[in-house]
Amino acid sequence: MPNLIKSVRGTRDLLPPDTETWNSLDAIAREVFGLYSFQEIRTPVIEDLQLFQRSVGEDTDVVGKEMFAWEDRTRAQSEKGQWLALRPENTAGVVRAYIEHKLWERPGLQRFYYIGPQFRRERPQKGRYRQFYQIGAEVIGPTSAGSESPAVDAEVLEMLAMLLERLGIQGWTLQLNSVGCASDRPKYLEVLRAALKDVVDKMCVDCQRRAVTNPLRVLDCKVPEDQPIIEKLPRQADYLDEDCRRHFAEVQKILTAVDVPFVLNHRLVRGFDYYTRTAFEFTHGLLGAQNAILGGGRYDGLSEALSGPPAPGIGFAIGEDRLVMTLQEISKAASKTPDVYVAPLGAGMNVAAAQLARELRRNGVIVTMGDETFKLKKSLETASKLAARFALIVGENEVNSGQFALKNLARGEQISVARAELPSRIIGSSQGGSSLR
Ligand code: HAM
User: Fold this and answer.
1) DSSP characters for 80-97?
2) Any idea of the CA torsion for 274, 27, 117, 313, to the nearest 10 degrees?
3) Between β-strands 367-369 and 390-394, what pairing exists: parallel, antiparallel or unpaired?
4) Rounded CA gap, 94 and 42, in Å?
5) pLDDT of 429 higher than 70
6) What's the gap in Å between 256 CA and the centre of ligand 1?
7) Which residues pair with 131 in a beta bridge?
8) Of 187, 279, 397, 413, which one's alpha carbon is 20 to 30 angstroms from that of 32?
9) Secondary structure class of 40 (helix, strand, coil)
10) pLDDT, average across residues 279-299
11) What is the pTM of this model?
12) 139, 111 in Cβ contact below 8 A?
């Protein structure tokens, strides 16, 4: 028998009913983008490899290590082919299209959004795939159309807050930084390199490599032993030139005025060479290690790096796989299984059970109620089906004595507990219970 053919490592099938979730996310994103006058752009999945080398940068992990690229020979084998790549991100493709179609000839700023697959040969893990999906947006145009204005940065971030709100995602953190620009970055790199010289031999091997190839990435290191060293390194914020400093202050002022909360993170550097000035990520605590739902920032020099006219821009990309995961985690947390199933036992016991349930809920216990018409067996079966951790029996004897039979359904043990101690017995024994309580 020939081997079974399986999906390729790091890729996955999206099946119904999950595809419904993906489609409704796309629909909500399109609706919100519409409110802000963004229109859809679709660029090819395959691009010239050079596009990413000249934009994202050859020394970055994404281009240096993670590209799906190949030499494409359309003519004779002997002829030199063209190096093509599956896109690892979509900003470079959008800016290429802006230049190729002379989109600056259209009035005002160009506001584009895209939804589609991206490819990176990363080590797959939860929330990290080799084919993943992004919902992204870019604003780009001549400076005369206002493309450099801090108001654009704030508008893009406010749009993201609106989108997450529409999707029902709360509890996110907007991390914000300014990574400087062509005029102040060389000075910062110089002092950073000098500071690294003295400490780099005490750092991890990755940092030793980064210190040579791309020192800014040292700030991104997650190795615990390196953290005290990194905290003492010079900060970009102290080397911003006057224009960048004012720009960043204005972005923060508008965000505060429109009620978009943020935290400043001076170590947020982002992975690509094209970033200038405002850089940001939205993270979510329910996501675990890969906690960035989205990332983005300004790229004021990117068009010129691709031989286009000056065309400052800013944008972001949401990892749709992670957005779906966040929504699933949120709904899991919301539809928590009951702590206790309260089982009234015998005619007339619904009243006493209702009183007890109210007491428990006031103390933060999640309660599901049975009914006095249920036999004990039926109550216990229902409690198990609902995956309640305990069943609490409320019969006449229990109410009169003030001592209640509390059955741990997983272990099958039953103990007698005084009324006042019920909440602490039930919550106190919660194993891996919700951290939201
Ligand atoms: P990025 O930070 O590389 O930025 O990716 C954006 C988001 O895509 C990440 O925050 C994450 O949610 C998701 N993502 C990245 N890699 C993976 C992966 N292997 N598996 C699952 N999700 C992933 C960009 O791509 C920039 N083009 C964003 C941008 C637009 N900057 C300016 N304009």
Assistant:
1) --EEEEE-S-SHHHHHHH
2) -10
3) unpaired
4) 8
5) no
6) 26
7) 119
8) 279
9) strand
10) 91
11) 0.80
12) yes
Cβ proximity of 99 and 303 under 8 Å = yes
| Residues within a 6 A CB radius of ligand 1 | 89-91, 120, 122, 127-129, 132, 134, 136, 138, 271, 292-297, 315-317, 319, 321-322
Compute φ and ψ for 269, nearest 5 degrees: -115, -20
Output the CA–CA distances (angstroms, integers) from residue 220 to 102, 122, 178, 191, 312, in the order listed: 36, 17, 14, 17, 25
For residue 437, what pLDDT is reported?
A: 29
DSSP symbol at 167: T
Residue 77: predicted pLDDT: 67
CA distance to 205, 208, 234, per residue, from 202 (Å): 9, 9, 17
* Lateral strand order in the sheet of 82-86: 46-48, 82-86, 69-72
CB 172 within 8 A of CB 280: no
Exposure pattern of 156-173 as b/e (b: 16+ CB <10 Å)? bbbbbbebbeebebeebb
CA distance 173 to 168: 14
**CA-to-CA distance for 329 and 134, rounded, in angstroms?**
19
Specify the 3-state DSSP secondary structure of 175: strand
Please report where in the chains the tokens 């450099």 appear, as a residue: 148
State both tokens at 254. 């508008």
Taking the centre of ligand 1 as the mean of its atom positions, its distance from the CA of residue 93, in whole angstroms, is 14
CA distances from 408 to 11, 335, 356, 366 (A): 42, 21, 18, 15
Give the residue carrying structure tokens 């004595």: 401
Report the range of poorest mean pLDDT among 138-147, 252-261, 304-313, 382-391. 382-391
Contact (CB, 8 A) for 258 and 264: no
Q: Whose alpha carbon is nearest atom 11 of ligand 1?
A: 319
The DSSP string of 307-374 is T-----EEEEEEEHHHHHHHHHHHHHHHTPPPSEEEEE-STTHHHHHHHHHHHHHHTT--EEE--TTS
DSSP 224: G
The number of the ligand 1 atom at minimal distance from the alpha carbon of 298 is 32
Using DSSP, state whether 118 is helix, strand or coil. strand
In angstroms, rounded to a whole number, what is the distance separating the alpha carbons of residues 316 and 163? 13
